């Protein structure tokens, strides 16, 4: 009986953490952090028109790392920095787990955009004459993402992908391991950045547990 009570006691803070994260996503934390869903959508799928990224289904460690980097100024963004800074370490961890566990919105299974041949070539094969690897070599088949360091590119708004590649290129984003993305982005023209972003938008994103 004591063992059962002890196990249940461990579950209480876990359930409370999930509930707190859900409340923060809907209402903010009352200490300066705005509701996450205001920009990232009720379903965590982001907002294509505004270029706000999808959070649902991303790796928890990756999300936590980005929130921490926004909070400490390593990664800059006029909207995210004040919001992440208003979150405690525990709140950032809880939100990362909450969005990681959120199911992928069904609309990502069959994207409507048409693939771009130039974007496909760069995404899948790169251009080794320029020392440029294919995006999928790190980000997985179809850009589904690999672990904490290589997030999904499929299922992200084209405007968001374009903005991030441009930021890597210009050196205004620098929080990647070994500065790999800065090297890659600097090899791309603005037209190529748009083509790659357009290709990933056109890729279907399998649900968790499915085979890419």
Topology:
Blueprint: H1 2-27, H2 37-40, H3 60-72, H4 80-85, H5 89-101, H6 117-124, H7 136-139, H8 158-170, H9 180-186, H10 190-201
Organism: Rhodanobacter geophilus
Domain Cytochrome c: 23-103, 114-204
Signal peptide: 1-18
CATH architecture of the largest domain: Orthogonal Bundle
How many helical stretches? 10
Count of the domains: 2
Considering DSSP H and I runs of 4 or more, what fraction of the residues is helical?
40-55%
Secondary structure tally: strands: 0
* Mean pLDDT value: 89
Tell me the strand percentage band.
under 5%
> What is the fold named in CATH at topology level of the largest domain?
Cytochrome Bc1 Complex, Chain D, domain 2
What is the makeup of the main sheet? none
Rg measurement, Å: 18 Å
Q: Shape, please? A: globular
Unreliable runs: 4-16
What class would the helix/strand composition place it in? mainly alpha
Assigned CATH class of the largest domain:
Mainly Alpha
Explain what this protein looks like in three dimensions.
- By secondary structure, this protein is mainly alpha-helical.
- It folds into two domains: 2-103, Cytochrome c-like domain (Cytochrome Bc1 Complex, Chain D, domain 2, Orthogonal Bundle), CATH 1.10.760; 107-201, Cytochrome Bc1 Complex, Chain D, domain 2.
- The chain is built from ten helices and no strands.
- The longest helix is centred in the N-terminal third of the chain and has 26 residues, at 2-27.
- The radius of gyration is 18 Å and the shape is globular.
- Mean pLDDT is 89; it is low at 4-16.
- It comes from Rhodanobacter geophilus.
- Residues 23-103, 114-204 form the Cytochrome c domain.
- This is Cytochrome c.
- Residues 1-18 form the signal peptide.
- Pfam families: Cytochrom_C.
């Amino acid at each position: 009986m004591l063992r059962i009570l002890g196990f249940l006691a461990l579950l209480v803070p876990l359930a409370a953490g999930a509930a707190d994260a859900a409340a923060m996503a809907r209402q903010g934390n009352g200490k300066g952090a705005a509701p996450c869903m205001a920009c990232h959508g009720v379903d965590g799928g982001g907002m294509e028109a505004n270029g706000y990224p999808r959070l649902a289904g991303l790796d928890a460690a990756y999300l936590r790392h980005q929130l921490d980097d926004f909070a400490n100024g390593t990664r800059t963004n006029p909207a995210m920095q004040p919001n992440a800074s208003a979150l405690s370490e525990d709140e950032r961890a809880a939100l990362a787990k909450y969005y990681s566990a959120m199911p992928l919105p069904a609309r990502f299974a069959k994207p409507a955009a048409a693939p771009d041949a130039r974007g496909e070539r760069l995404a899948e094969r790169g251009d080794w004459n320029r020392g440029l690897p294919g995006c999928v070599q790190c980000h997985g088949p179809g850009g589904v993402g690999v672990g904490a360091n290589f997030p999904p590119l499929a299922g992200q708004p084209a405007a968001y992908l374009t903005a991030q590649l441009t930021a890597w290129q210009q050196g205004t984003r620098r929080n990647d391991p070994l500065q790999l993305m800065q090297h890659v982005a600097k090899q791309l023209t603005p037209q190529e950045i748009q083509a790659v972003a357009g290709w990933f938008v056109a890729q279907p994103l399998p649900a968790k547990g499915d085979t890419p």
